[in-house]
Specification:
By secondary structure, this protein is α+β, with helices and mostly antiparallel strands. Helix content is 28%, strand content 29%. The chain has four helices and seven strands, in the order βααβββαβαββ. Bound molecules: coenzyme A. Coenzyme A binds next to β4, α3 and α4. InterPro entries: Acyl_CoA_acyltransferase (IPR016181), GNAT_dom (IPR000182), MshD_Acetyltransferase (IPR050276).
């Protein structure tokens, strides 16, 4: 049976940065922020991760998507701020051929776990298009709820951006 996991690109090589750019393009966004994301990662305010499937009979793992954890956003501290133990999920994308198999859900679960264990995060936030019923339903199922007013309409979202959050349960000793 294949094992699904997240791998943080803490010390990425050029091929991994290129792969991140390709995933971003596949997702339908542009890749111009990717270099900046890795600069943020080197300052420890963002973690860029790959979603991977490992088949025990194969040497190489299969990349099925991407996800990121933002630890500090000085432009919007309600979304990510070390002092309030709040972090934000960003850039989630599961390749179309792997969608609908539970990997999106598992990516969120593993990222929450990582955030609690590595950084003591207590509140997880995210921003998504309020126009995408599919994405809203996906996050609601995972326990997220809107916590502040939506943004005005945006070019990519007629109903504006929805800001969602969830309290994370710390591990019991
Ligand atoms: C959103 C996304 C990450 C979901 O990943 P996924 O691997 O397809 O989702 P999963 O298979 O883990 O599904 C998890 C739950 O969401 C539900 N779901 C998934 N796709 C759905 C859809 N099209 N409509 C309604 N529910 C859906 C599933 O039924 C499942 O519910 P269940 O646990 O009750 O069975 C994926 O579709 C994606 O990468 N989309 C493009 C990029 C994007 O929109 N990213 C999010 C930006 S905020």
């Amino acid at each position: 049976m294949s094992t699904f996991s997240l791998r943080a690109l803490n010390d990425p090589n050029p091929a991994e940065i290129q792969l991140y750019k390709e995933l971003r393009l596949q997702c339908g966004w542009d890749d111009d922020l990717v270099d900046h994301w890795f600069e943020q990662a080197s300052k420890h305010i963002r973690v860029n991760l790959l979603c991977e499937l490992q088949d025990p009979n194969q040497m190489e793992s299969q990349v099925v998507g991407m996800i990121a954890l933002v630890l500090q956003d000085d432009d919007d501290v309600q979304m990510a701020d070390v002092s309030t133990k709040t972090a934000m999920i960003k850039s989630l994308f599961i390749k179309p051929e792997y969608q609908g198999r539970g990997y999106g859900k598992e990516s969120i679960r593993l990222l929450e776990d990582f955030a609690v264990k590595q950084y003591g995060i207590e509140t997880m936030t995210l921003e998504t298009s309020a126009s995408s019923k599919k994405n809203m339903a996906f996050y609601i199922k995972l326990g997220y709820a809107e916590f502040r007013e939506r943004s005005p309409p945006l070019p990519w979202s007629k109903l504006g951006a929805a800001y969602m959050s969830k309290k994370l349960i710390p591990p019991t000793e």
